[in-house]
Design a protein that fits this description.
By secondary structure, the protein is an alpha/beta fold. 35% of the residues lie in helices and 14% in strands. The strands form 2 sheets. Strands 5, 6, 7, 8, 9, 10 and 11 form a 7-stranded mixed sheet that branches. A 4-stranded parallel sheet has the order 1-4-2-3. The two termini are 35 Å apart.
Length: 335
């Protein structure tokens, strides 16, 4: 097996499309629209790759194709590519590989080392399969910033096995991000942040101190998704952050919901038109608007002013009541 980062030059070349989905290829991917063989399907592409290399039908599934490709760089992409290239030897790391992929693509805390591996590969906590900040591991290996995905793969793939077996050797890459994850988890465990579960919505109230220091601001930076995923179980997450004069709000789908999953339930995207009309009619801050915001893969709605989170004057229970009574929160079903 050999890997080549996807370009249009591979359009008509027989290939295995691992994680990302590209045309004229055999898919081993959890991305929507994939044609992955049913016998190896799983929630992450890394688990799909592990199922593939463990399958007695591997040669039939791959049709003898030796070229592996992917069209983006992230933890799940790197680990699924590495698994297919490595073959059965990768199975010794199965649990850690899956945990790292779940941390990277779903912002889930399946294990401490899984989160740390993902931070080292793709960067700090985020619910997206892409990282605009670049790979800390690629940067370390190159001795400079790496903003080219193909080069990042070239640097990182030979280092994966050492990373998996010696995660503490890479502490400089994951320590800061890991501290942020644990601080958020501890905030929930101590009751400073909280989750209140309704029929199919989780009201997530974040402690203001999570955003203190270091120039971190909820108007500029992501919510602590890994901690939220650990405690919130709804089909929608209403994230509320108290601020002077009101609350910052964002409404998100569970962070795995962008992918095609097998074990995790499929989450139906909702028609939030009526909810937005009601929220805006009751909103006291007329400088902002409740509006659809899908700039992130799982975001649904935010209260915004000029494209930035603004302070709503509605209380969290009022927002939940609107969402529950507007017909937006019918039972979840598969997409």
């Amino acid at each position: 097996m050999r890997f080549e980062f996807y370009t249009e030059a591979l359009d008509n070349v027989p290939k295995l499309s691992v994680d990302g989905t590209v045309d004229n290829s055999i898919h081993f991917s959890h991305w929507q629209g994939n044609t992955t063989p049913a016998e190896v399907k799983a929630d992450t592409s890394t688990e799909i790759a592990l199922n593939l290399v463990a399958s007695p039908n591997r040669a039939e599934l791959t049709k003898g194709i030796e070229l592996v490709t992917n069209n983006h760089f992230d933890t799940d992409g790197v680990l699924s590519v590495w698994t297919v290239l490595t073959g059965e030897r990768a199975l010794a790391h199965r649990e850690l590989l899956i945990a790292a992929a779940e941390a990277g693509d779903f912002s889930e805390h399946s294990s401490d080392d899984g989160v740390r591996v993902s931070i080292a590969i793709q960067g700090s906590d985020q619910a997206s399969p892409n990282n605009d900040d670049g790979s800390p591991l690629a940067r370390l290996l190159a001795g400079e910033e790496v903003d080219d995905d193909a080069r990042a793969y070239e640097l990182v793939l030979p280092e994966v096995e050492r990373l998996l077996t010696n995660i503490n050797d890479y502490e400089s890459l994951w320590r800061e991000g890991w501290n942020s994850v644990t601080a958020a988890i501890e905030s929930f465990e101590r009751g400073k942040s909280s989750v209140t579960e309704y029929s199919d919505i989780s009201l997530v109230t974040l402690a203001p101190e999570l955003f203190d220091g270091g120039g971190f601001s909820p108007t500029k930076h992501a919510a602590p998704y890994t901690a939220i995923s650990k405690f919130a179980k709804g089909a929608l997450f209403l994230i509320a952050i108290p601020t002077a004069g009101g609350w910052f709000y964002r409404l998100d789908y569970p962070y795995y919901s962008w992918a095609e999953t097998v074990v995790r339930p499929r989450i139906q995207r909702r028609d939030l038109t009526n909810a937005l009309e009601l929220l805006n009619s009751r909103e006291g801050n007329h400088d902002g608007r409740w509006q659809i915001d899908n700039r992130e893969m799982t975001s649904a709605v935010k209260f915004l002013s000029n494209g930035t989170l603004a302070a709503s004057r509605l209380e969290p229970d009022q927002v939940v009541a609107v969402l529950q009574t507007s017909g937006s929160l019918s039972a979840s079903s598969a997409v």
